[in-house]
């Protein structure tokens, strides 16, 4: 019986040692797997960062291109509208005879740009040209127009439309 107990204890010790060895091996395998996944994550993160930077550069170039097109589009629309301004306002009884585009003035705190300014000596019409008109744009223009005579004192005595 003592021999059986000793054999059983030895068997249990061997099984325990085998389990512990398996656990050590499994732990090592998991640590290797984790290290591989961390390395893959780091590589993936670096690749994503490169792609993000490349995309950001493309977006920046595209935005600059669109801004350039918007500026040219705005000038195109202004050039398209300007020839009709005198005729249209005269047809409505506003006696303007000349126009100027992109009239700018900075006077103290008042800085203003008028897309098209039509006048005749005592009447001036400030025209804001928009390829896409919104109520907000109209409200903003009307708000800015309040300061027109301060920004352009030359027109103090003019009737402004």
TrEMBL record:
Coiled-coil zones: 9-40
Domain of life: Bacteria
Record's keyword annotation contains Coiled coil: yes
Keyword Metal-binding: no
Alphabetized UniProt keyword annotations: Coiled coil
InterPro entries linked: Restrct_endonuc-II-like
Protein name: DUF3782 domain-containing protein
Organism: Prochlorothrix hollandica PCC 9006 = CALU 1027
């Amino acid at each position: 019986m003592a021999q059986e107990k000793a054999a059983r204890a030895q068997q249990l010790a061997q099984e325990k040692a085998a389990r512990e060895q398996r656990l050590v091996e499994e732990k090592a395998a998991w640590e290797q797997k984790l290290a591989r996944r961390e390395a893959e994550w780091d590589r993936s993160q670096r690749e994503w960062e490169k792609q993000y930077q490349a995309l950001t550069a493309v977006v920046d170039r595209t935005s600059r291109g669109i801004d350039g097109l918007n500026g040219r589009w705005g000038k195109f629309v202004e050039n398209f509208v300007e020839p009709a301004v005198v005729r249209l306002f005269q047809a409505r009884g506003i006696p303007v005879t000349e126009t100027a585009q992109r009239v700018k003035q900075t006077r103290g705190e008042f800085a203003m740009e008028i897309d098209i300014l039509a006048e005749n000596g005592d009447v001036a019409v400030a025209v804001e040209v928009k390829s896409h008109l919104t109520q907000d744009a109209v409200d903003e223009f009307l708000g800015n127009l309040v300061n027109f005579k301060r920004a352009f004192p030359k027109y103090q005595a003019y009737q402004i439309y």
